[in-house]
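Q: My labmate handed me this sequence with no annotations at all. I'd like to see what the chain might look like in three dimensions before we decide whether it's worth expressing. Could you predict it?
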Amino acid sequence: MISWFTKNGIAANFLMVGIFLAGLYTAFFKIPLEVTPALSWNLVMMDMRYRGATPKDIEKAILIPVETALERVQGIDQLNADGGNGRARFYLRAKDGVDLRSLMDDVKAAVDTINTFPAETEPPRIFIPESANSREVLTIAVSGYLSDHDLLKAARQVRDDLLEMPGISRINIQGDRAREISIEADELKLRSYGMTFQQIADAIRRNSIDMPAGTIQSQSGRLTVRTRGQAYTEEDFAKIPIRSKDGADVLIGEVAKIIDGFEGGTKYVEFNEKPALYVEVMRIGQESAIGISDKVRKYV
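A: Here is what I predict for the chain of 300 residues:
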């Protein structure tokens, strides 16, 4: 082969040019441009919180039901779980050749069939861990002399605008305090309707909830049916009916003050000596870090 190329120099030059062009094409169109090399651990993780629960409560209310539900899921090679105060974690190692996203969808469908989680639990977060998700491509500081609500609203607007751009799939907001909705009942109004504080609490438990309604098997796959009733905002809670009186529903907003605020405590985040929140733009999968940077800089 070498002797043939020494006698046919033109063919060798064409081969060299072809290799060079193939390398350019691969570099620009096939290799993702990333901040750090992406690592995958062939895992699907699940994180679930249970406010105020002891490790024993976590085991009984979350670990055992979830492990039982996941026994029916195909493609799991190994399942590890641990529970602590107020939190449970599951590590699901996939079998060789199993698509992680399909496995994640199957895990979500299995967990959605569980209807015994206590009311104090938060919705489970199921995701595929990747090293690319741990470091942002760039960060935008949203700052100004605004209230906490207005500053968070501005940061969310920036996040929503960027997520509408093709090639940007994940954005985190850092620096904000945990949201908290408090409901302060008016005792005089409750008495006028003949109601109690317990009735308000019971109404929230009945109506502010997402419930699985089973699955439908079709030729295109398995569909999970759920009823979406979880309240998230001040307006959602205000519209929850407590009970009927004289043919009309009495709503929580009519007998209580609903405050859509933040948890107690103080948190200072500043940029150029102004209150600020940071919007972190991440890269996922084959998204280009340079392409993301160019789009964000043009937006800003």
